[in-house]
Amino acid sequence: MSKTTYHHGDLKNALIRAGVEILAEQGVSGLSLRQVALRAGVSHAAPYAHFADKQSLIAAISTDGFLRLYDEIKTAANAHRTNPPQQLLETARTYLEFATKDPARFKVMFSGVLEQEKEYPEFVEASKKNYEMLVEIVQTCQAEGFLPTGPAELAAISIWATVHGLAALALERQIPHTLLEQHSRRDLLNHALQTYFVKR
Q1: Greatest C-alpha distance within the chain
Q2: What letter would DSSP give residue 47?
Q3: 55-194 CATH fold
Q4: Where do the domains of the chain lie?
Q5: Using 50, 70 and 90 to split pLDDT, how confident is the model at 4?
Q6: Whole-prediction pTM value?
Q7: In which region does residue 114 sit, left (phi positive, over 0), alpha (psi from -120 to 50) or beta (all else)?
Q8: Domain 1-51 has CATH 1.10.10.60
Q9: With contact defined as beta carbons under 8 Å apart, do 8 and 50 qualify?
Q10: What is the pLDDT of residues 48-87, one digit of tens each?
Q11: pLDDT digits (tens, 9 = 90+) for 99-108
């Protein structure tokens, strides 16, 4: 097989993309540095320039996913900065859309297969940024009287659990078809989140 020549820095991203493709097709069990190298069209030794082992590759794929998710959620949040309830709804919808358009990456991000997470500070920081942004949005909604007062982190984790739970049900095709024939996933999400808002 002919080997592809990559510019400096491109190889790592190419290996991450190859890893996501393998995850989509075969799941975590099919992922290995050898298979990623084969998919990317490089030598079997090439991945070791960036990844020490399979765990570090999973960390890189997950970190890349959290950074992408953060950018998309941040864009949605900025677009609705003057309307806190809508900001919360739109960022939640962005989360749901991210999960459904890139399910393989999303699943590995939250799969728990990454061992010793603290050994990968970039992963920790990337995932933390997403959670902190949700807490900030919740605090804004509380300050404006749209969400009940109380510890913002407790409200944030409850809202996250609701959104993530709906995303997981959608990915596993566990939402009843009869319901989806009448309502979109976004409608279901909107209905679920409305229960958190203060009635005005």
Answers
A1: 65
A2: G
A3: Tetracycline Repressor; domain 2 (1.10.357)
A4: 1-51, 55-194
A5: low
A6: 0.87
A7: beta
A8: yes
A9: no
A10: 888 989 999 999 999 999 999 999 999 999 999 999 999 9
A11: 999 998 899 8
